[in-house]
Design goal:
The complex is a heterodimer of chains A (888) and B (90). With 888 residues, chain A is α/β, with parallel strands linked by helices. In chain A, helix 4 (81-99) packs parallel to helix 5 (135-148) and helix 29 packs across helix 30 (860-872). Chain A is elongated. The radius of gyration of chain B is 12 Å and the shape is globular.
C-alpha cells in the first residue's frame, strides 16, 4: 500500500534469526489457541446466527466511527479526522449493504441447470496485517467480513497504529461475543513487532494471512508458505482527456487526492492532461483551491517530499495537509491550499514526483496526443503501481476502452474519484473493500477488491450430469421392393448418379434413371469399385461442378456412398480440409474441428444402397483410404448424412454369396457394437436389438438362397436399422481392429470384422482392465447386454456368463455357416508377416476413433492380444475371460 | 447428555471416573453444538480419563460436533462409535 520502507517498520521481511521471549511466545500461542477453538466452534453457526452478529457489529462500528477516527488521527498523526469518520462508516455501512443478503454459510449458490452447488467452508484462523494509513476502517471491515464468513482473526496492526486498532478490535469483539460469537474470535497484538508477525505467519494453526500493508508485509506474507491475500503498492495514473467534463473531473480529483490527506493508496498520483485543455484544467485546479507550482517550487518538492536515496515518498509528508507540507518545506502558499499541483516532464527516477505520494501533492503532465498520454499513463502505472488502480476522465468510449486495455490495474475508475471509486459501492458497483488486490503485477494472487468470497473456501458439489443425447437419421427413408420409385418426387434440374462400373453394367443405373422426374438432366459418374481415395473424390467433385448438380444420387455399397458423401462435402464447401476434418475427437459436441456450414453449392444427396451391410445410406460416416500410408481415415459428422435413403431390395437380389456374408456380418457387428456402446440409448438399443434379431434369422437364408425376396428384404432393412443404431451410438473396438487389419492386409471390411467378432465379445464381457469413463452408463453393463441379446435370440443359458458363452458360440456357428475362415492364419497370412505388421496395426487401431465408445477401454497390449487371438482363431474366444465374466 | 448442561454433566461424569474401569461411554446423540466451555470440559475429561487409563468412547456424536473436535485436534483423544441411525440433517 505504501512504498516506503521507513514508514512501515512492521513490513520488512522477518528474519528467522529474530527471536521472541518465552513469555511472548506463550502470549502468541494463547492467541492462536483461542482463535483456533473459536474458529472450530464457529463452524456450527448458521447463516441467521452470523447475520445477527454482523448486524450488531455494524451498528457498533457506526456508533463508534467518530471515536475510532479521532483515536486513529491522534495516534498516527496522519489524515483527516472527518474523512476517517467517513471511512469507518463506509467500512461498516457500505460493506454491510454488500454482504447482508449474501449467503456465506452452507450452500451459498446453486446452479441447478449445471447440477452444481457451491458450499462455503470457513478458512479458520487468519492473521491479518493492517496499515497505518487506514487503521480502524480496515479493522472494522475485516472484522465484519470475518464474522460473516465464520473465521477467527488475529490482527497485527502497524506498530504506530496498534492502540486505535486494538480499540476497534475490542469494540467489534465485544459486540460479536455479546451476540453469540465464539470467545477468542478476534484478538489484536499489543505492541506488535516484526518477530510477532514472523511467528504468526508461520504458525501451523494460522490458515491464511491477509496482509494489507506495505510491500514488505505483503512479501513476508507470500514468503511464509501460507496461503495469503496481499495488496500491492499503488501509483495511480489519471488520463484527463479533452472530451471529459472538466469541471466534474477536477472536482473529483481534488475530492480524491485530498480525502484523508491522500492516504488511500488508490488516490491519484499523476494526471496526464491533453495539451488542448491543459491550461484550462490547471486554472480550474487553482480556482478550486489548489496551488500550481512553478518550476522552482516543483524542484523544491522533488527534493523534500521524495527521498533522494530510495526514490520513495518521505514518511513525514504522508497524510499531511498540503498547506502544512508547503510550510514545512518553505514554500509560500495560501493557508487554505488544498492541493499542491506540480507539473512534471516525464516518469522515472529523474522525475521524482512521478512516484506514489500519499499526501496532497499531485503531479501533472502535458500530453500532445492520445498516444503520448496513454504512454505516460502506462509509464506511471509501471512505476510502482502495476495492478492497483488507474483513472480515466473522458466521454470518448474508444479512449476509455483503450485505456482499460492498456493499463494494468485491478480497478480502472471512469469519470469518478480514484480513491473513493476504488473502495467500491460509492461511485460504482465495485465490491466494497479496504484491501485492493493488485494481481501478479503487484505480487498478489488476485486483482479483486477483497471481500467475503476471499475469506471462504468455496467447495463445489458437482452432481453427475447426463448430457443430452440424440437420435439423428435421414429425413426420409424409403424401404421394401421398388422403393426407388420415390426418387421421382424430388425435383432436380441436374442429377449426377455416382456408381461403380459393375452396377452400371447390371442395369441398376437405368432403373434409377427411369424413376427420376422426366425434366431431370441425368449424368452418370462412374468411380472405381474400391474404397474411396482422395483423387477419385476430387475427380467426382469436378464432375459435380461441371454439371452444376443440384441432386446427387449415390448408387452402390459403402464405398460408393462414402465417396459420394465426401464429394458432396467438397462440392458444397470446396475449402473443407479433409485431413483436418478427420482430426480425432472424444465427444462430437466438443470436437475441435467443425465441419463447414457455409456452402458454395447446394445439392440433395439420395443414397441407394446396393449391399446390405454398411448402412452408409443413413450414417454420418465416410471412410476414405489413404493409399500412400495404407490407412483408412474416418470422417464423421451429421452433415455427411444423406438427405434421403432408399432401401430397395431389388438392388441386392444379385449380390454374390461372399458379399452377402461379408456385408451381413458387418451389419451384425454394427448392431452388436452399438448395443454395448457407451453411447447406447433406448433409441439405439431398439434398433440394435431388432437388427441382431433380423440378421440371425435372415442372413443364413439370404446366403443360402440368394433369390429369397423376404430374406433379402429383411437383411437390407437389418443393415439400415443397425446403421441407424451405430450412427447414434457408434461402434467399438471390433471396428478399430478390423479397420487396422483390413487396411494392412487388404481384407474386406465385413470379413475383417468377422475375424475379430467372437474375440471382442469375450473381451468386452470380461472384467475390464480399465473401465471407459462414460457419463451415459451406470456401472458396467456390456456383459449383461450381451446376455439380453442371447435371450432375445433364445439361446438359453441361466447365468449371464452362460448366456455370453452361448452368444459367442452362436456367432461362431453363424460364421461357420457363412463359410468364414476360423482364423487369420486360416485366411492365409503368414505368422511372420502378421508379426511384422503388428506394431502398425496396433497403432492404427488405437488411433481409430471407433473404440472411443467401446464399453471397455482397450490398452495397447490388449489390442495386441486381441489381434493374436484373431490370428489363432475361434475356440480361443469362448475360453477367454470366463472367470472374469463370473466376477462381474 | 444435552447441549445446555453439557459442561456440568461432563464434570460430574469426570468425577465418577474414579470408580470406572476400562471404558467410559458418553452418549452424544443429543449434543448438537459445543461451545468453548464444553470443549474445555471435554479436554479435562479426556485428561482425567487418560491419567486413569480409561478409554473414552463418544457414542453417536453428531457430525457437526465431530468436525469441531477434529478442528481442535481432540478426536485423537476419544473413540467414536455409532449405534443409532442419524439423519444428516438432524
Amino acid at each position: 500500500m505504501i512504498a516506503s520502507g521507513t514508514l512501515h517498520e512492521n513490513t520488512r521481511v522477518p528474519s528467522a534469526a529474530e527471536s521472541l521471549s518465552p513469555e511472548r511466545i506463550a502470549y502468541l500461542e494463547n492467541l492462536v489457541s483461542q482463535a483456533r477453538t473459536a474458529a472450530a466452534i464457529f463452524t456450527q453457526f448458521t447463516q441467521p446466527d452470523v447475520d445477527r452478529i454482523v448486524k450488531a457489529m455494524v451498528l457498533s462500528g457506526l456508533a463508534q466511527a467518530q471515536h475510532l477516527a479521532r483515536l486513529a488521527v491522534e495516534e498516527t498523526r496522519l489524515g483527516v479526522m472527518e474523512d476517517k469518520v467517513i471511512k469507518n462508516m463506509v467500512a461498516c455501512e457500505f460493506v454491510y449493504d454488500y454482504v447482508k443478503d449474501k449467503r456465506t454459510v452452507g450452500i451459498i449458490r446453486e446452479f441447478p441447470e449445471r447440477n452444481l452447488m457451491e458450499i462455503a467452508e470457513p478458512i479458520g484462523v487468519l492473521f491479518s496485517i493492517t496499515p497505518i494509513t487506514n487503521p480502524t476502517s480496515t479493522v472494522l471491515f475485516k472484522c465484519i467480513v470475518a464474522i460473516k464468513t465464520r473465521n477467527a482473526v488475529i490482527f497485527g496492526p502497524h506498530p504506530k497504529a496498534w492502540r486505535c486498532c486494538a480499540e476497534a478490535v475490542k469494540i467489534m469483539y465485544e459486540t460479536a461475543v455479546k451476540h453469540g460469537a465464539p470467545e477468542g474470535v478476534f484478538s489484536c497484538l499489543e505492541s506488535p513487532t516484526i518477530p510477532d508477525n514472523a511467528y504468526l505467519m508461520r504458525h501451523k494453526d494460522v490458515a491464511m494471512i491477509d496482509a494489507t500493508g506495505g510491500p514488505g508485509a505483503v512479501k513476508a506474507a507470500y514468503s511464509s508458505g501460507k496461503p495469503a491475500l496481499g495488496v500491492g503498492p499503488g501509483n495511480t495514473p489519471v488520463y484527463l482527456e479533452k472530451s471529459a467534463d472538466l469541471n466534474a473531473a477536477v472536482v473529483d480529483i481534488i475530492i480524491s487526492k485530498t480525502f484523508d490527506n491522500g492516504t488511500i493508496c488508490a488516490s491519484e498520483q499523476t494526471v496526464v492532461i491533453d495539451d488542448e485543455i491543459y491550461d484550462q484544467v490547471l486554472k480550474k485546479f487553482a480556482d478550486l483551491g489548489a496551488h500550481i507550482c512553478d518550476e522552482k517550487e516543483t524542484k523544491l518538492l522533488e527534493h523534500t517530499v521524495i527521498d533522494p536515496q530510495t526514490g520513495f515518498m518521505q514518511p513525514m509528508a504522508v497524510g499531511q495537509k498540503a498547506a502544512d507540507i508547503a510550510r514545512f518545506i518553505g514554500m509560500a502558499v495560501k493557508p487554505n491550499t488544498k492541493l499542491l499541483v506540480a507539473p512534471i516532464r516525464g516518469v522515472g527516477r529523474e522525475h521524482p514526483l512521478s512516484v506514489e505520494k500519499l499526501f496532497p501533492v499531485l503531479a501533472v503532465y502535458r500530453a500532445k496526443s492520445v498516444g503520448e498520454a496513454l504512454k505516460v499513463c502506462l509509464d506511471v502505472n509501471h512505476a510502482g503501481g502495476i495492478g492497483h488502480t488507474a483513472v480515466v476522465f473522458s466521454r470518448n468510449e474508444d479512449v476509455i476502452r483503450k485505456f482499460g486495455e492498456v493499463i494494468n490495474a485491478g480497478r480502472i475508475i471512469v469519470n469518478s474519484p480514484g480513491a473513493i471509486g476504488a473502495l467500491g459501492a460509492v461511485y460504482n458497483d465495485l465490491v466494497p473493500t479496504f484491501s485492493f488486490g493488485c494481481g501478479t503485477g503487484g505480487g498478489n494472487s488476485t486483482t479483486d477488491n477483497v471481500n467475503i468470497y476471499h475469506y471462504l473456501n468455496i467447495k463445489r458439489l458437482a452432481r453427475r450430469t447426463q448430457n443430452h443425447m440424440w437420435f439423428r437419421v435421414p429425413n426420409q427413408i424409403y424401404f421394401n421392393m421398388n422403393a426407388v420409385e420415390n426418387v421421382r418426387q424430388f425435383p432436380s434440374h441436374s442429377t449426377v448418379i455416382v456408381t461403380n462400373p459393375a452396377l452400371e453394367q447390371m442395369g441398376h443405373v437405368d432403373i434409377v434413371r427411369r424413376n427420376l422426374a422426366p425434366e431431370t438432366q441425368v449424368h452418370v459418374s462412374v468411380i472405381p469399385d474400391a474404397e474411396p481415395e482422395v483423387n477419385v473424390i476430387l475427380q467426382g467433385v469436378e464432375e459435380l461442378n461441371f454439371y452444376k448438380a443440384d441432386q446427387i444420387i449415390a448408387l452402390g455399397g459403402g464405398s460408393v456412398i462414402d465417396a459420394t458423401k465426401i464429394m458432396k462435402l467438397k462440392y458444397e464447401s470446396p475449402e473443407a480440409d479433409l485431413e483436418e476434418l478427420a482430426a480425432p475427437f472424444l465427444d462430437l459436441r466438443k470436437r475441435v474441428v467443425q465441419y463447414p456450414t457455409e456452402k458454395k453449392n447446394r445439392a440433395r444427396l439420395i443414397a441407394i444402397a446396393t449391399t446390405s451391410g454398411t448402412g452408409s445410406e443413413v450414417t454420418p460416416f465416410a471412410v476414405l483410404t489413404d493409399k500412400a500410408s495404407g490407412r483408412k481415415v474416418t470422417l464423421a459428422d451429421y452433415s455427411l448424412t444423406p438427405d434421403i435413403a432408399i432401401v430397395d431390395p431389388q438392388f441386392v437380389m444379385s449380390m454374390p454369396k461372399g458379399l452377402t456374408a461379408d456385408t451381413g456380418i458387418d451389419c451384425l457387428t454394427h448392431a452388436l457394437e452399438a448395443g454395448v456402446s457407451n453411447y447406447a440409448s433406448p433409441y439405439t438399443d431398439s434398433n440394435a436389438m431388432q437388427a441382431i434379431r433380423l440378421a440371425f434369422k435372415y442372413l443364413p437364408i439370404a446366403y443360402e438362397h440368394p433369390r429369397d425376396e423376404e430374406a433379402r428384404s429383411m437383411m437390407h432393412n437389418a443393415a439400415c436399422i443397425a446403421a441407424m443404431a451405430f450412427s447414434n451410438a457408434s461402434v467399438g473396438v471390433n471396428h478399430a481392429l478390423a479397420h487396422a487389419f483390413g487396411a494392412r492386409f487388404g481384407v474386406a471390411h465385413g470379413r475383417a470384422n468377422a475375424l475379430m467378432l467372437p474375440h471382442v465379445i469375450a473381451y468386452n464381457a470380461a472384467v475390464p482392465t480399465k473401465f471407459m469413463p462414460s457419463p451415459y452408463t451406470q456401472g458396467y453393463v456390456a456383459h449383461k447386454k450381451y446376455a439380453t441379446i442371447a435371450d432375445l435370440l433364445g439361446l438359453g443359458g441361466k447365468t449371464v456368463e452362460e448366456k455370453v458363452e452361448k452368444l459367442i458360440a452362436a456367432i461362431s456357428q453363424l460364421l461357420d455357416q457363412l463359410g468364414f475362415p476360423r482364423s487369420i492364419a486360416e485366411w492365409g497370412i503368414s505368422k511372420e508377416d502378421y508379426e511384422r505388421a503388428m506394431p502398425d496395426m496396433v497403432q492404427s487401431a488405437f488411433n481409430d476413433p471407433s473404440w472411443r465408445s467401446n464399453p471397455r477401454m482397450p490398452l495397447m497390449n490388449e489390442l495386441v492380444e486381441l489381434l493374436w487371438k484373431a490370428y489363432e482363431g475361434r475356440g480361443a474366444a469362448a475360453r477367454t475371460g470366463v472367470a472374469e465374466r463370473q466376477a462381474l | 447428555m444435552d447441549d445446555k448442561r453439557f459442561a456440568l454433566t461432563l464434570r460430574e461424569a469426570g468425577a465418577k471416573l474414579n470408580g470406572a474401569d476400562g471404558e467410559a461411554i458418553l452418549d452424544f446423540s443429543s449434543v448438537r453444538r459445543v461451545d468453548s466451555d464444553a470443549l474445555h470440559a471435554l479436554e479435562q475429561f479426556a485428561q482425567i480419563a487418560g491419567e486413569k487409563g480409561i478409554k473414552v468412547v463418544l457414542r453417536d456424536a453428531h457430525i457437526d460436533v465431530y468436525k469441531v473436535l477434529k478442528l481442535v485436534k481432540l478426536t485423537r483423544r476419544f473413540s467414536f462409535e455409532y449405534c443409532s441411525a442419524q439423519s444428516p440433517r438432524s
